[in-house]
Design a protein that fits this description.
Blueprint: H1 3-15, H2 20-41, H3 49-68, H4 71-79, H5 85-103, E1 107-109, H6 124-148, H7 154-170, H8 177-210, H9 215-242, H10 251-278, H11 284-289, H12 292-326, E2 334-336, H13 339-367, H14 373-393, H15 399-421, H16 423-451, H17 457-488, H18 495-527
Antiparallel strand pairs: 1-2
Helix pairs in contact: 2-3, 2-13, 3-6, 3-12, 3-13, 4-5, 4-13, 4-14, 5-12, 5-13, 6-7, 6-12, 6-18, 7-18, 8-9, 8-14, 8-15, 9-10, 9-12, 9-14, 12-13, 12-14, 14-15, 16-17
C-alpha cells in the first residue's frame, strides 16, 4: 500500500464520506455473513434456531460495542490531535481484535457478573429466550446511546439486559441485589476516581513544566519520569487485565514486571526526549509534542486490554446460548467459547468501530472539552491507574465512566486554574481593588467636608466634585465587579454534554432491563 493510498483512505475516514445507507449496508452484510455461517455450520444441531438468532444478535451487539465503547480508548488521542481519526480506527480495530483473539480467554461466565441465579430458571428453553432478549436489548440501548452521542457502559447495558430478562423469566428473587448495588456504586466511584487521577496528573504537569519559565528544561526532567510511570501502569494493567485469561498473575508479580518495564522505558526515552527537546521552541506547543508517541502507545494498549475483557459483553450471552443448546439443556456456571463465537465478537467490534465509532470518538475527544496532548496523557494515565487501584480495593468500576470522568476532570481543572490564576483575571481583580480604595478615600473626604462648619465656596465646589467622583467610581466598580464575576465563571466543560452523559449513565441499567423484559415477553408470546 503506497503513501498516496493511505492518505486517500485517511481523508475518506476523516470526512466520513460513507453515507448512512452505505454504513448500514456494510453492517447488514456482516450480520448476513454471521447468519449464513451459523446456519451452514450448525445444520445438524437440534433446536438451532435460537443459536442462529443469538449469533445475529451477538453480531449486532458487538458492532454497537465497537461504535460506542472503543471511543474511550482513542477519543482523547484523536481530540488532542496525537492521532488522526483514520489511524485511531486502524490501531483500535487491530488491537481490539488482537486482545479478543489472543487474550480473550476460552471461558466466560454465563451470567455476566453473577447478577442472577440461572438455577432458578428450570426450563432451559426459557433460559435461552432470556439470554436472547438480554443480547438484543443491550444492543438496542447501545445503538440509541450512540445515536444521541452518549458514551455509556456496555457492561452496564448487558447487565441490565440480563437482569430484566431474568426478572421477566423468574421474578425479582432471581437477582443478586447486592451485586446490583455495587454496579450502582460504580456510577459514582468510576468517574470520580478517573477525574481525580486525571486532574492530579495534569496539575503536576502544569505546575512542574508549563508554569516554569524554562519549560523545555523542566520537560527534560519530568517527561521521562511521567512516561515511565505510564509504562509501569500499562504494563501492570496488561498483566492483570489483558492476559488474565491466559495466565493468572498476582498483583505483586504484575507490579514488579511493570516496574521493570518502567525502569527500562525511562533509560530508553530520557536521551531521546532530551534530543527532541533541544530542537523545539520553549513554549506549550513544544511540550505537547513530547507526549504524542506515549499517547499512541496508550491508545493501542487500552484497546488491547478492552478487547481482551469486554468482548465477553458481546459474546457472553451468545456463548451461554450455544452451550445450553450443545449440551442439551444444561446451563449455568462457566462455558467454553468456540472460536467462531469469539470471531463474531472481535470482528463485530472492529466493524462497528470503523462504521460508527467516529461519532463517539469526537464526543469523547472534543465535544466535552478541548484536549491537547498533556490533557489526553493525563486521561490515559487515569484509565490505567484507576482500574488497577479499584481492582485491588475491590471497588466496582466502569472503563467508560473512568475515561469520560477523566475528560471531565481535566476540563474542570482548567476552569479552576484559569479562573484563579489567569493574568487577565488577576489584573481585573487588582484594578477593582484600586478603584475600591479610591472610592473609600473619596467617601472619607466627603464625610470630612460635610462635617466641617462654615464651609468656603471652594469647599462647596469640592463637595460637588467629590459627589460626582463617587458616583463615577461606583459605576466603574459595578461594571468591574460584573466583569470579574463573569471572568471567574470560565467554562471549558460543556454543561449540556455533561448532563446528557450522566443522565445516560444513570438510566442505562433500568432502560436496558425494561427493554429486555419487553423483548422476553415478546419472544415468549411468539414461541408459546
Amino acid at each position: 500500500m503506497d503513501i498516496k493510498t493511505v492518505r486517500t483512505m485517511e481523508k475518506v475516514t476523516n470526512e466520513t464520506v460513507l453515507n448512512g445507507y452505505s454504513r448500514l449496508a456494510i453492517a447488514f452484510l456482516f450480520i448476513a455473513i454471521v447468519y449464513v455461517w451459523t446456519t451452514l455450520t450448525h445444520t445438524s444441531v437440534e433446536n438451532n434456531t435460537f443459536l442462529i438468532i443469538g449469533a445475529v444478535f451477538g453480531a449486532y451487539m458487538a458492532m454497537n460495542i465497537g461504535a460506542n465503547d472503543v471511543a474511550n480508548n482513542v477519543g482523547p488521542a484523536v481530540g488532542s490531535k496525537a492521532l488522526t481519526m483514520f489511524w485511531a480506527i486502524v490501531i483500535a480495530a487491530v488491537f481490539e481484535a488482537a486482545g479478543a483473539f489472543i487474550a480473550g480467554g476460552d471461558v466466560v461466565k454465563t451470567i455476566q457478573k453473577g447478577i442472577i441465579d440461572p438455577h432458578m430458571i428450570a426450563n432451559p428453553q426459557i433460559f435461552i429466550w432470556a439470554m436472547t432478549a438480554a443480547l438484543l436489548s443491550a444492543a438496542l440501548w447501545l445503538n440509541f446511546a450512540t445515536k444521541v452521542g452518549a458514551p455509556v457502559s456496555t457492561t452496564h447495558s448487558i447487565v441490565g439486559g440480563v437482569m430484566g430478562a431474568g426478572i421477566a423469566a423468574a421474578g425479582f428473587s432471581i437477582v443478586d441485589w447486592g451485586t446490583m448495588g455495587t454496579i450502582a456504586a460504580s456510577w459514582i466511584i468510576s468517574p470520580l476516581l478517573g477525574g481525580a487521577i486525571a486532574a492530579g496528573f495534569l496539575y503536576f504537569i502544569k505546575k512542574n513544566i508549563v508554569f516554569q519559565e524554562d519549560m523545555l528544561l523542566s520537560a527534560k526532567k519530568f517527561v521521562p519520569v511521567l512516561v515511565s510511570i505510564m509504562a509501569v501502569a500499562f504494563a501492570t494493567y496488561i498483566m492483570l487485565k489483558g492476559f488474565k485469561h491466559i495466565v493468572k498473575i498476582e498483583f505483586v508479580t504484575a507490579l514488579a514486571i511493570g516496574v521493570a518495564v518502567g525502569v527500562a522505558v525511562f533509560f530508553f526515552v530520557k536521551p531521546r526526549i532530551a534530543k527532541t527537546a533541544n530542537s523545539l521552541d520553549n513554549d506549550r506547543a513544544a511540550v505537547n509534542k513530547l507526549f504524542t508517541i506515549p499517547l499512541i502507545f496508550s491508545a493501542a494498549l487500552l484497546s488491547f486490554a478492552h478487547g481482551a475483557n469486554d468482548v465477553a459483553n458481546a459474546i457472553g450471552p451468545l456463548a451461554a446460548i450455544n452451550d445450553a443448546i450443545m449440551r442439551g439443556g444444561e446451563f449455568g456456571g462457566k462455558v467454553g467459547i468456540p472460536f467462531w463465537v469469539m470471531g463474531v465478537g472481535a470482528i463485530g467490534i472492529s466493524i462497528g468501530l470503523a462504521l460508527y465509532g467516529p461519532r463517539l470518538i469526537k464526543t469523547v475527544g472534543s465535544e466535552i472539552t478541548e484536549l491537547d496532548q498533556m490533557r489526553a496523557f493525563s486521561i490515559a494515565m487515569a484509565a490505567a491507574l484507576t482500574v488497577i487501584i479499584a481492582s485491588q480495593l475491590g471497588l466496582p468500576v466502569s472503563s467508560t465512566h473512568i475515561a469520560v470522568g477523566g475528560v471531565f476532570g481535566v476540563g474542570f481543572l482548567r476552569e479552576y486554574l484559569d479562573s484563579s490564576e489567569s493574568k487577565w483575571i488577576q489584573s481585573v481583580k487588582e484594578q477593582f481593588k484600586n478603584h475600591k480604595k479610591e472610592l473609600e478615600l473619596l467617601q472619607a473626604e466627603f464625610k470630612i467636608l460635610e462635617a466641617k462648619q462654615g464651609k468656603s465656596v471652594e469647599e462647596y465646589e469640592r463637595i460637588i466634585e467629590v459627589v460626582k467622583a463617587i458616583d463615577e467610581k461606583e459605576l466603574i466598580l459595578k461594571s468591574e465587579k460584573k466583569e470579574y464575576k463573569g471572568a471567574k465563571k470560565i467554562k471549558y466543560v460543556k454543561r449540556d454534554a455533561v448532563k446528557k452523559i450522566i443522565a445516560a449513565w444513570i438510566i442505562t441499567v433500568p432502560a436496558a432491563a425494561t427493554l429486555s423484559a419487553a423483548v422476553f415477553y415478546m419472544i415468549k408470546g411468539m414461541v408459546s
